[in-house]
Amino acid sequence: MKFREDMHKMHRRIKITLNAPTVLSFVFLCFIATLLNYITNGRSNSQVFMTYHSSLKNPMTYVRFFTHVLGHSGWAHFIGNASYLLLLGPMLEEKHGASRIVEIIAVTALVTALVNYIFFPDVALCGASGVVFAFILLTSFTEFRQGEIPITVILVAIIFIGQQVYDGLMLKDNISNMAHIVGGIVGAVMGYKLNRK
Predict the structure, then answer these.
(1) CATH 1.10.3130.10 fits 2-196, yes or no
(2) How far apart are CA 33 and CA 118, in angstroms?
């Protein structure tokens, strides 16, 4: 009887809260972009949610420098990235704030798009993988203190960069390892700067 009363009290106290609204909004926008891509049979990605070597006279080229992180090639691609974003994002948003998360996403999007545009003119890029890897490296810096580099940061960097270099050299797949590496570098640089402050 007491157990049932305790469960009833606990049940009344539990409520769903809206944490990490910025990360949730980003994941929701990724979902909408992926849904649009599915509905339009890939046209929305090629027009809005994918960056590639298009004319600099076209205003959409500059829009796609940022919006490509919303588009995904399919549901498996979206679910994989969304899982990491929802796992890592709330902790980072709580620590650094919503505006900083928007800045990290925007900087990662722009840097990966520019590197892709300049060095890989034949590659089209879409997806939040670069943002995911920026979040992974940024998370590694949460315990960073002035004058110290945690061993976890070194291990994550070695494992992460090593895997991406190996995959880039050995595997001929559809995944842009460049976006992963650049995203990780952005996350590491911003993580160092933010935690140094």
Answers:
(1) no
(2) 25
